[in-house]
Amino acid sequence: MGSIKALAENKPDEKQMSRIEAIINSMTPDERRKQHIINGSRRKRIAKGSGTSVEEVNRLLKQFVQMQKMLKSARRDGRAGRRRQESAPPGHADAAQPQIPAVLEWRSRQAAYRPSADASGP
Length: 122
Fold this sequence. Notes:
Elements: H1 2-9, H2 14-25, H3 29-33, H4 40-50, H5 54-87, H6 107-111
Helix pairs in contact: 2-4, 4-5
């Protein structure tokens, strides 16, 4: 649980969020769904399209992979906790444990699938 608290303390500011959104909007829908297909030339194109550096694109992709692993671990721990809680007798310490929420939102990931408000259509 300590890693979630550390994440909450390191909230990105609006400038960082706009850069993250620009990077994600510079990706193709396929690249958003399957980040493993992003090779060096795609990273360079994404960086150029978003007005950022390749290092910032790499940093975002690395953070995304780490977040996926953490959420997967949290889901796995949550399922184990429910099994423990169901088998625990009433009044036992495991029976009173709070459950980890099933869904944790990550704002920048959501922003990738929403059209931006300032984008004008044809």
